[in-house]
């Protein structure tokens, strides 16, 4: 059975006041939610402990990035084991902003996936094509290659920790969203890639991200291969984020 997940990526936004007001409000409004959705909040690392303290059992907490190494002289880096020790259940890996702005390579993404899984974290592996790649007809080729490289070393017993988030780069923070048909087609393609690798593809949760809002979430989540969302800007509003969580149908 696939998990239904809605994860809020705060990116480089937040404050103690935001943590206190937003997490408390989300927790309160999600209390009666009975559609089985797993809600995850992924704040900047400095606020992880504050979110953990307020989240309770209703909300899982993630970190936005982890290092390729377990420990050592890597100033500014956060080890996956540290994130786990601080109360995180998930980490993002390979977000397009990490790839584009910080030059993160497929090899580094794969190494981070390995470290995350070995530390007991769930790895939300982000994949997606640029507008140029889509217009050139290479979207599925690009995304397939990213998926294959990221999960190359995943062991048979680790697939339950793997989540793949498809985020078309051209839709992140732009207000543009893939059509439901395009999003479903790419998710089906990703599931087929996982199956070809011998993964239990029908058990791996696939999320859509890229300008998901309260008014388009239901149509996206109704697609058979979309199991939830990785939410950016809308996760900074408790009202919007809760509305998106409520849009995920109890379809399993």
In short:
The protein has 252 residues and is of the alpha/beta class. The chain has helices at 16-30, 48-55, 80-85, 96-102, 106-118, 131-135, 139-150, 180-196, 217-221, 238-246; strands spanning 4-9, 37-42, 59-63, 90-93, 122-127, 162-166, 205-209, 228-231.
Brief descriptors of the model:
single chain, 252 residues, alpha/beta, TIM Barrel, 8-stranded parallel beta barrel, 10 helices, globular
Largest sheet: spatial strand order: 1-2-3-4-5-6-7-8
Strand content: 15-25%
Query: Average pLDDT value?
Result: 94
CATH class: Alpha Beta
Count of discrete structural domains: 1
Number of strands: 8
Please tell me how large the radius of gyration is: 17 Å
**Strand pairing plus helix content: what structural class?**
alpha/beta
User: What CATH architecture do you see?
Assistant: Alpha-Beta Barrel
Q: Termini separation (Å)?
A: 7 Å
The dominant shape is globular
The CATH topology is TIM Barrel
Q: H/E series, N to C?
A: EHEHEHEHHEHHEHEHEH
Reported for the largest beta sheet, the result is:
8 strands, parallel, barrel
Number of helices: 10
CATH superfamily: Aldolase class I
Unreliable parts: none
Tell me roughly what share of residues is in helical segments.
25-40%
């Amino acid at each position: 059975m696939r998990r239904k997940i809605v994860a809020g990526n705060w990116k480089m936004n937040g404050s103690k006041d935001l943590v206190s007001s937003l997490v408390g409000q989300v927790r309160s409004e999600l209390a009666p939610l009975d559609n089985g959705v797993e809600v995850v909040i992924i704040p900047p690392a400095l606020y992880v402990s504050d979110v953990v303290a307020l989240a309770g059992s209703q909300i899982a907490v993630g970190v936005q990035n982890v290092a390729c190494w377990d420990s050592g002289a890597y100033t500014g880096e956060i080890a996956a084991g540290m994130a786990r020790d601080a109360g995180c259940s998930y980490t993002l890996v390979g977000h397009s902003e990490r790839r584009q702005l910080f030059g993160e390579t497929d090899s580094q993404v794969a190494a981070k996936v390995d470290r995350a899984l070995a530390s007991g974290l769930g790895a939300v592996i982000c994949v997606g094509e640029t507008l140029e790649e889509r217009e050139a007809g290479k979207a599925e080729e690009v995304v397939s290659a990213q998926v294959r490289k990221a999960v190359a070393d995943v062991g048979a017993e680790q697939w339950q920790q793997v989540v793949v988030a498809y985020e078309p780069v051209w839709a992140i923070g732009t207000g543009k969203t893939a059509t439901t048909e395009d999003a479903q087609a790419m998710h089906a393609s990703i599931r087929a890639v996982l199956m070809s690798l011998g993964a239990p593809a029908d058990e791996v949760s696939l999320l859509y991200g890229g300008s998901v809002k309260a008014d388009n979430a239901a149509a996206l989540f109704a697609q058979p291969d979309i199991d939830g969302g990785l939410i950016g800007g809308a996760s900074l509003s408790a009202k919007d984020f809760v509305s998106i969580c409520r849009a995920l149908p109890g379809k399993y």
